[in-house]
Write a structure and sequence with these properties.
Helix content is about 40%, strand content about 15%. The chain contains 15 helices and 12 strands. Strands 3-2-1-4-5-7-10 form a 7-stranded parallel beta sheet, sandwiched between helices. Helix 3 crosses helix 12 (about 275-285) and helix 7 packs parallel to helix 10 (about 200-220). The two termini are about 20 Å apart. Bound molecules: NADP nicotinamide-adenine-dinucleotide phosphate (NAP). The site of NADP nicotinamide-adenine-dinucleotide phosphate has 23 residues, from helix 3, strand 5 and strand 8. Keywords: NADP, Oxidoreductase. InterPro entries: Epimerase_deHydtase, NAD(P)-bd_dom_sf, NAD(P)_dehydrat-like.
Length: about 375
């Protein structure tokens, strides 16, 4: 990818939204301890939607990045030029091969790093694998990575990209009746299983819960600073070549032909991809950061999304959707008080979230 395309994609919605390098500079007064020329960090699952954007931002911010990718099951070489051609990649990006099926395989990439962002996850879209198989791979892979972090003795902070599914299905009186859930709340798998309409797979909910808990427990027992980012649907522009599943879900109404009611949510909790990367870098550079942080900025009901998209994008023919089929079940909002109190400011709203996603989809022929 060329420099121009990368710049166009950054804000996803044209010059107005373009994110300059300075905008990633989240600590005006506290320079990063890691930006001392040895700011070596590792990002797992480098080919993915979230990780590739994070790698781009880390490189722009001055970090040296080791990205892990896995080999194709067919043994073919992957085209990862969208990573290796990023600005600063030739000087500061190294690619390592590692697979969650081989927990030890992450060790070489982690040795010597100051921080590790564990983003890889078995995203089983087909649902062919059992919950047990997905969870086992997720947790064993994670434990291998955590052990490598502890062994390395250089890793100051470990980041896990968790999901809002770990807090949404709490049931009962979570949030003290406030209508909001915060980081003190954990989903109950049984509450999830009892949901009438399931929009996410059981293997995803169970594996994310197991992994986030295991990471926090490992940190507490082994004196490793563990930060988990609890994020809802990540939407916005993308540099990875395939259509990210969360972008597809958020725009499901626009995908003629592919449209199916099962892809629609009653409520869309979303965050811009760049705010996710900014939050991770913010928490990386903060002298103290600990535990879970909910990172979410936009909540829209399905009828609001419909109205928004049909008004802003009249060029798309939206299907008829019977809104009464999407009666919002009692669902909690996500509290971002902890992240905001730590000084983080979200930069993007619904406009940029959707415009960035639509522009990237159009540029790659998905829309
Ligand atoms: N996107 C969202 O809305 C969202 C919301 C909440 C949390 N998250 C979390 O954020 C992370 C990234 O999500 P994403 O949307 O960027 O997903 P993605 O684009 O599907 O990326 C997943 C990454 O994991 C890698 N991976 C899968 N199985 C692996 C294995 N066995 N060994 C090593 N790597 C493996 C994939 O490699 P290949 O390219 O080889 O398949 C890919 O790089 C995940 O942990 C996800 O749970 C995402």
């Amino acid at each position: 990818m060329g420099r121009d395309e990368e710049e166009d994609d950054n804000g996803g919605g044209g010059g107005r939204e373009r994110t300059k390098l300075d905008d990633v500079a989240v600590h005006e007064t506290v320079p990063s301890l890691l930006l001392d020329g040895t700011g070596l960090v590792c990002v797992t699952g480098g080919t993915g939607f979230v990780a590739s954007w994070l790698i781009m931002r880390l490189l722009q911010r001055g970090y040296s990045v080791r990205a892990t990718v896995r080999t194709n099951p067919e043994g073919n070489k992957k085209d990862i030029s969208y990573l290796t051609e990023l600005p600063f990649a030739s000087e500061r990006l190294q690619i390592f091969t590692a697979d969650l099926n081989e927990p030890e395989s992450f060790k070489p990439a982690i040795e010597g790093c100051k921080a590790v962002f564990h983003v890889a996850h078995p995203m089983d879209q087909s649902g062919n694998e059992t919950e047990e198989a997905v969870t086992k791979r997720t947790v064993q892979g994670l434990m291998g990575i955590l052990k490598s972090c502890a062994d390395a003795k250089t890793v100051i902070r470990f980041f896990y990209t968790s999901s809002a599914v770990t807090v949404f299905y709490s049931g009962g009186n979570a949030g003290g009746g406030s209508g909001e859930v915060d980081e003190s709340v954990w989903s109950d798998v049984e509450v999830f299983r009892n949901q009438k309409e399931k929009r996410v797979s059981g293997s995803y909910v169970v594996s994310k819960l197991a992994a986030e808990m295991a990471a926090l427990e490992f940190g507490a027992k082994n004196g490793l600073e563990v930060v988990t980012l609890v994020i809802p649907l990540v939407v916005g522009p993308f540099i990875s070549p395939s259509l990210p599943s969360s972008v597809f879900i958020s725009l499901a109404m626009l995908f003629e032909g592919n449209y199916k009611e099962k892809y629609l949510f009653d409520t869309y909790n979303m965050v811009h991809i760049d705010d996710v990367a900014r939050a991770m870098i913010y928490l990386l550079e903060k002298p103290i950061a600990k535990g879970r942080y909910i990172c979410s900025s936009v909540e829209m009901k399905i009828d609001e999304v419909y109205e928004f998209l049909s008004t802003k994008y009249p060029q798309f023919q939206l299907p008829f959707i019977d809104m009464k089929n999407y009666k919002v079940e009692k669902r909690m909002s996500l509290s971002t008080k902890k992240l905001r109190s730590a000084g983080f400011e979200f930069k993007y709203g619904a406009d940029e979230i959707f415009s960035g996603a639509i522009r990237s989809c159009e540029a790659r022929g998905f829309l």
